[in-house]
Amino acid sequence: MTQSAPTKSAGLFGYRLSPVGSIAFLVILFWAVIAIFGPQIAPYPVGKIVDMDYFGPMSAKFWLGSDYLGRDMLSRIILGARYTLGIALAGVLIASTTGVVLGMAAAVVGGWFDTLLSRLMDALISIPSKLFGLVVVAAVGSSLPALILTLAVIYVPGAYRFARALAVNVNTMDFITVARIRGENTLYLAISEILPNIIRPVLADFGLRFVFIVLLLSGLSFLGLGVQPPLADWGALVHENIQGLSLGAAAVIAPSLAIASLTISVNLLIDDLPRKIRDRSA
Amino acid sequence: MNADIASMIGKRLGLSALTLLIVSFAVFVATNLLPGDTATILLGQAATPEAVAGLRQAMHLDDPAVFRFLRWLAGAVTGDFGTSYANNMPIATLIAGRFVNTMELAGLTAVIAVPLALTLGITAAVLRGTLYDRIVAVLTIGVISVPEFVVASTAVLLFAVYLKWLPAISFVNEVHSLTDLLRMYAMPVVTLTFVVSAQIIRMTRAAVIETLSMPYVEMALLKGASRSRIVLRHALPNSLGPIVNALALSLSYLIGGVIIIETIFNYPGIAKLMVDAVATRDLPLIQTCALIFCLGYLILITIADIIAILSNPRLR
């Protein structure tokens, strides 16, 4: 379905980004670097109480103030990036891969397999995601692997529906019929004929789903049911310091801004992609 | 022709009922994944093997899971949701008052958010490409891209900390006057209105823009019809179906929003009850709350689908 990329423009994925898109890309890159090199960058040990004052204001010594125990907020946010980005990335990788594999399988195999799988996914999609998260966390607890799997499972149905709708369209094309007549097997059809034709919108969907997972993870952590202390992602940092809200403490505002900058940047970057890639929703 | 519509709606309702069954089963399975034996946990210190066996028998824990599910389902249908593990009260009693509170919060939000958001969404679509449209777009994308608690904290910072217009926390126990009532609902309703309105504005704008790009709108324009006439007489009646559909879908965001908002403002509703129940692992209570939320969500998306069917003129 996707035509070959316009040859004149260069850059990411072969497209030229607008200024807004470039800034968004840089912000994402910035957080990625922070997440990878966190321990080397952080000015103070993450768990150490360094400020005599709690909910300290921003200062030259503590750029983002201190939290409810007097720990350095900047260091905690830098280390928190690892959890927010890492968990969300792991979750979205599992969710999108599973969704795309099942979606292509449903489109290529068709018949009762497709019907059964689609019904099941439709049922799963009608559980509100935050509620799903609450119930599963109540049942299996919130260790990091459990959290990643829960987030992944919640977003598989969406990825499945998206990929299946795309794959069904491609599946009716002549070159697929030709390949079938050639006697190619299902695996070849899915990987070599369908996947290359749906990969770009699937990647855009991957970005959106990453945002959803970051939002849900932050929400769960904010409720105190996500990442558990002593570890803390950005949502958990807001949870810990929420009493400081009435003081207008930087300890609440900074992690909120961190989440917002990440999610808004991903959204803007995807908005900046060419129309024909984005607007493929089912 | 009407028989067609009726059968489609009937099919949709049947599908919803089936979905509800699958969803309630999923909730039941999830809450039964809990490692550890319920009877042992309940008895705590007094967990002698005899007592555990007795309690297991009394709670039918030794029955196959399917039977337990059916028994729970049969109870739920007749209004008997079992008893809470945490304080041994019937769940129906625990929930009744809280349910009313949550419905008040959601209802009040809808009454404010729907007219506000519809106005903004429709005007943004009509004034597409203007500065006004861009400002609305930036604000809605901003609200949609961040978690609800960030919206809530921003609202608290703005209205309670800096402007000092509203109290930061809501209490429902003591309501003596209208001002008390206002103080109690103000922050949660304001925050929820932001969250829900952003969704409605986006979807309404998209629906109206799609209608405005139809050939008959261009025709009206070429005939020389005025802008207000094109919008009010040609575009709006035709986009009513999609708009109402967008409304029902957006209101389902209330459910996710309510969970966060009730927690952050300490509002005594079902969502707060459920979050607390998750913390104490009070499974029957979690099951019931989850079921209520799923039911509300299903009702909303079913209404959206039925409206989509009804508003399709090709089916009439």
TrEMBL record, chain A:
Write out the transmembrane intervals: 20-38, 83-112, 132-156, 206-227, 247-270
What is one Pfam family matched by this protein? BPD_transp_1
**What are the record's GO terms for cellular component?**
DNA-directed RNA polymerase complex; plasma membrane
Compartments where found: Cell membrane
Describe the location of the ABC transmembrane type-1 domain by residue ranges: 81-270
Which keywords does this Swiss-Prot/TrEMBL entry list?
Cell membrane, DNA-directed RNA polymerase, Membrane, Transcription, Transmembrane, Transmembrane helix, Transport
Offer one example of a GO biological process linked to this entry: transmembrane transport
Membrane-protein topology: Multi-pass membrane protein
**Gene3D superfamilies given in the database record:** MetI-like (1.10.3720.10)
Question: Which InterPro entries would you find in this protein's record?
Answer: BP-dependent_transpt_permease (IPR050366), MetI-like (IPR000515), MetI-like_sf (IPR035906)
Q: Which family does it belong to?
A: Belongs to the binding-protein-dependent transport system permease family.
Protein name, UniProt field: DNA-directed RNA polymerase subunit alpha
| Species | Xaviernesmea rhizosphaerae
Automatic annotation (TrEMBL), chain B:
Q: Does the keyword Transport apply?
A: yes
Listed InterPro entries:
BPD_transp_1_N, MetI-like, MetI-like_sf
**Primary localization class, coarse:** membrane
GO cellular component, alphabetical, reads:
plasma membrane
The record's subcellular location field reads: Cell membrane
Q: Which SUPFAM superfamilies match?
A: MetI-like
Q: Which PROSITE patterns match?
A: ABC_TM1 (PS50928)
This protein's membrane topology, according to the annotation, is: Multi-pass membrane protein
**What Gene Ontology terms for biological process does this UniProt record contain?**
transmembrane transport
The record places domain ABC transmembrane type-1 at 99-304
Keywords linked to the UniProt accession: Cell membrane, Membrane, Transmembrane, Transmembrane helix, Transport
Question: Where do transmembrane segments lie in this chain?
Answer: 12-34, 105-127, 136-162, 182-201, 243-265, 285-310
Q: Which family does it belong to?
A: Belongs to the binding-protein-dependent transport system permease family.
For this entry, the protein name equals ABC transporter permease
